[in-house]
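Subject: for your reference before the review

Hello V.,

The reviewers asked for a structural picture of the protein, and I figured it would be easier to keep everything in one thread rather than splitting it across files. Below is the amino acid sequence we used in the manuscript, unchanged from the supplementary table.
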Amino acid sequence: MAIDGAAWRAAVDSQLRPSESLRFIASARTKPGDTGGGLTLMPLGTLYRWAHRYFENASAKRASSNHSFPLRRRMIWAVTDRRIIVWELARRPRGEPVGAYDRSAILHADRPDVGGLWRTVVLTLSDGEELVVQLGGDSADNLAKDLNAA
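And here is what came back from the structure prediction:
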């Protein structure tokens, strides 16, 4: 999927509060479970992919309601000096963000693995819960450094 960077930047800028500064924009996703594998007939494969996507979305929304952290299966995060603003991933922004989370409610960010296209970050939230997400590229390292420096 080709992302329209200019449209996303405009959407992010429209959500910034006065004197709030943008640190970076990152693609993120909830950590996927085991997708299984094997050979299936084409109609069954399509049904399987649809069901898998449906349950992944439902799982992300459940996790979001448990943590008060806005989650979707695939997301765009705008990390500012005060908040993490979350949108559902699309080529172009559609409407308002899913929500935002105050950075002061994140106690710690841990990077348990190294390398890979998607890198895991474990956020320890002020309610004592841990939230596991994956960020693309160097964004995971940037997030962990930025959150732990505060």
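For the response letter, the relevant points are probably these. Confidence is low (pLDDT under 50) at residues 34-42. The CA atoms of residues 35 and 52 lie 8 Å apart.

Happy to draft the paragraph if you're swamped.

O.
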